[in-house]
Design a protein that fits this description.
ten-stranded antiparallel beta sheet; two-stranded antiparallel ribbon; 8 helices; globular; binds zinc ion
């Protein structure tokens, strides 16, 4: 019942768009952006408009409707994380797309309109505001320290240890200092890498472990909370006049995981400040102590 698939992994000799798949990627039936056309920009008086060109894909994570990937198997997680990689690599070739965002909405409060386990990919013709702020911020830091701010954060968090949730050879998850939301978690590769697709196969397996364990802890601590996760990777470097020629030096990819526990309200909308009732140190402590089955 979906549109024809863009990508799939199949265990048997099954044909595209037929049963026998482990993971499938299809175009979104109700896309936020259209794939066909050129990016047109126009001025409307003092205002600016551009055409809504981009890609909007849905990753169907498993054939099982009630499956929770991080509970079932490590293989399922690795397959999902590898599919993220394959789709980003493919979409990057289209130089109309300045950014490719992978994200997951789990539960109605997190914005999910379907209950079957899925992630989404949206390729946009401009670099989104939040990403631009991160990339510009990391460049500014690099400008006076000649170091990656994210690598520095990892070093500092390891020195304190109080905000770490889980760690393996290649990845670390932590509740960031002065985080916006209760139980907000960031997950970063320990090796400096600006782009998600630079990850090796071994690192993908370790990411599966780190994300899997982190999600199990979060789910045990909060009782299967609704959440969003977003993958922040470098902007597409193949675009003409790339504004960040040194992005490989100063940016560092990561996941942000945000359980839906509080509501963004007047104060937050009005100021861009966030009131977080749970200090990240307490959240991390709780996540480390919780029994995981
Ligand atoms: Zn770094
Ligand atoms: Zn980020």
């Amino acid at each position: 019942m979906t549109p024809p698939e863009i990508y799939s992994v199949r265990s048997h000799d099954s044909l595209a768009n037929s049963p026998g798949w482990d993971i499938r990627v299809v175009p979104n039936k109700f896309p936020a952006l259209r794939i066909e056309g050129t990016v047109e920009r126009e001025g409307v008086g003092m205002f600016d408009r551009m055409s809504g060109i981009g890609a909007h894909e849905v990753i169907i994570e498993t054939p099982l409707h009630d499956d929770i990937l991080y509970r079932r198997s490590d293989d399922g997680m690795v397959l999902l994380l590898d599919t993220y990689k394959k789709r980003i690599d493919d979409l990057k070739k289209d130089i109309r797309f300045h950014y490719i965002l992978v994200f997951k909405n789990e539960g109605e409060r997190a914005g999910a309109s379907l209950s079957h386990p899925h992630s989404q990919i949206i390729a946009t013709p401009i670099v989104p505001k939040r990403v631009r702020e991160e990339v510009d911020g990391s460049l500014e830091y690099y400008g006076y320290k000649m170091r990656c701010v994210f690598c520095d954060i990892i070093r500092e968090e390891k020195r304190f240890g109080t905000r770490i949730v889980h760690e393996n050879a290649s990845f670390i998850s932590l509740c960031p200092f002065a985080s916006r939301f209760p139980f907000e978690i960031w997950l970063l590769p320990k090796r400096h890498m600006s782009g998600y697709t630079s990850m090796t196969q071994q690192e993908t397996i370790e990411l599966g472990d780190c994300l899997g364990v982190t999600m199990k802890r979060l789910s045990a601590a909060l009782g299967e909370p609704q959440y969003n996760w977003m993958l922040h990777s470098e902007p597409n470097r193949s675009v003409p006049r790339n504004p960040w020629p040194d992005v490989g030096e100063h940016y560092h990819w990561h996941f942000e995981i945000i359980p839906k526990l509080t509501r963004v309200a007047g104060f937050e909308w009005g100021t861009g400040f966030y009131i977080n009732p749970t200090p990240p140190e307490d959240a991390a402590d709780f996540l480390r102590e919780v029994d995981v089955f």
